[in-house]
Each structure stands twice: as C-alpha cells, then as structure tokens.
Description:
alpha/beta, Rossmann fold, ATP-binding, Oligopeptide/dipeptide ABC transporter, ATPase subunit, ABC_Ni/Peptide_Import, AAA+_ATPase, ATP hydrolysis activity
Amino acid sequence: xxxxxxxxxxxxxxxxxxxxxxxxxxxxxxxxxxxxxxxxxxxxxxxxxxxxxxxxxxxxxxxxxxxxxxxxxxxxxxxxxxxxxxxxxxxxxxxxxxxxxxxxxxxxxxxxxxxxxxxxxxxxxxxxxxxxxxxxxxxxxxxxxxxxxxxxxxxxxxxxxxxxxxxxxxxxxxxxxxxxxxxxxxxxxxxxxxxxxxxxxxxxxxxxxxxxxxxxxxxxxxxxxxxxxxxxxxxxxxxxxxxxxxxxxxxxxxxxxxxxxxxxxxxxxxxxxxxxxxxxxxxxxxxxxxxxxxxxxxxxxxxxxxxxxxxxxxxxxxxxxxx
Length: 323
Ligand SMILES: Nc1ncnc2c1ncn2[C@@H]1O[C@H](COP(=O)(O)OP(=O)(O)OP(=O)(O)O)[C@@H](O)[C@H]1O
C-alpha cells in the first residue's frame, strides 16, 4: 500500500537572481514500511524533496504538484495544519544533531517539548516516561535525559535525534544524510539501529544521501536524482546489478574500490548544471558518455519497465531513431 504519493512535484526557490528550479516534475511512491533511498550529487535537490514533504521550505518557495499523504494533499495544506503532521506523523532526522539540538536545553526538555506540542493534554511525568523509553530504544540509559547535548559524543547525539524523531511513533521518517558527520564505524551502527527501529515500529523511511554505500545496506528501493530530476527509480538489487541510466552507472563506477591494487579514483567529468538556467533536454546530457543529439534538445520521457523500474532517458525510448 502506498503511504505517500508524490505527483509531478516541482519546487522553485526565489532568489535575488531569479527562480531556482530545484525539483522538476517528480513522481514517486513510498510504500508501507518501505525504505526509499534518494541518492545524487550535492545540489541535485535531495534535501529540497525532504523539505517539501515536511513543509519546511522558505515561505516564498513555489511548490506545485501533489504530495498525497493519508488522504490529504500536503501541498495545499496551510502551515498550521502541516505543523500538526510534522513531528507526529512525518518526522525528520537531520545530518548535524548539534544544530538541531538546543545547546542550553537538557535532553529531557527536548523530548517533553516535542511530545507536549502534539499531545496537548499529556502530563509532564508521562511525557518524561515516554522520553525515557525512547532513549532506551536507541541504547542510551534514561538517566542521560538530565544531560545537555554537549555532554554526549557525536554518535550518541545522533541516537538522541533518532529517539526524538521516533518518540511519537510517526508513519514516516525522513533521514537527511543521517550519518554523514560520523566516522565509518559509528555510521554503520547508526544505520543498523535505524533499520532495527524501523522494523520494530513499522515506520517507513526516506533515506537521503549522496553515498550509494549508505543505501546499499538499508534501502528497499532507490530513486536517483540529477539536476532536479528523478532520473532512475528501481528496487535496490536491480539498480546495483544492472543500472539503467548512464548517470547511475557513472555513480556506481565512482564508488572507491577497496582492492588495494586498484589505486585509481574514478569520478564523473564535468559539473552539474545550474538550476537557475537549466539546459534544455536531459540535465545530464553534457556529461553523458552515451548522449544522442535529442538529449540536449528535449526532456527525456519516463520509461517504465515491466518489473516496475523507471528510467528517464532517451536511450530507452523505442521511438528514438537518430544515433
Ligand atoms: N533556500 C534556498 N534558496 C535558494 N536556493 C536553494 C535553497 N536551498 C537550496 N537551494 C538550491 O536548490 C538546489 C537543490 O538544493 P538541495 O539542497 O535540495 O540539494 P541536495 O541534493 O540536498 O544537496 P546537498 O547534498 O549539498 O544538501 C541547489 O541548486 C541549491 O543551491
């Protein structure tokens, strides 16, 4: 069952220099209990996607299309109604817990504030007990609720953020680069924790990352973004085994090889396009080793395979004749 449906979503930021088309015409589904990985290079629109779903983008940002959740279109809801959904039904884990946690508030007060914002009639003591349980769920003793954020290690702070995001048992968690600021061992522990809590509480998750390694372990399905477009959508296994889009292929090839004899570092030549004046056609065409003439002229169609994969690329359009 689909929990969340994005339909033809576009997001335009307003800047002094003009509009930035951060997302264009993006459609995606998130199923019950699913983990959907969203990957792509810096600036491709991943965080904007999370922000659009949560309704936390700057006020003057223009969001069009539909974000369907629980029978409602979040795009058309007012900010007050969205605030009620945010934190309770859809919550967020950010990259840097230090900027999300208030340095002068004890951990318990972060929890009590979150809980009382949504469960207005709840007593402080009951909220405290909920916080204690949430903290224990992430492997931290409840007596740390008296601590301030600076008294914890980076990994522990991220665990607290996870506990805070899950304390009200939301239906969806959006995790935006949740492990980027952590060292590799702690990263793996945090990903494992996220996965086990997700199974325990039946939560669906959108995992946003620039790192294909992060989604390799955790995601069921993966959406690949480039220059504000969703260029490929696939189940994880097929994507790693046989990527369809030339960009996905290049991304996979640029994962560092752990074979010590292979010291080459592969990267994708060129830079992503400006989203202020995006080029016509496929956004990847200038860097694409397989580009056809049509690729820089017209936006590619979304081609769906029989097994439910999608690729937005002219190479898969049966009507393309020029090579
Ligand atoms: N508040 C804003 N105002 C104007 N432009 C913005 C704003 N936030 C993001 N952008 C622009 O929108 C585009 C997408 O940015 P976004 O942060 O969503 O990408 P990202 O893939 O999450 O990148 P990163 O991994 O670096 O966070 C970029 O061109 C960025 O410069």
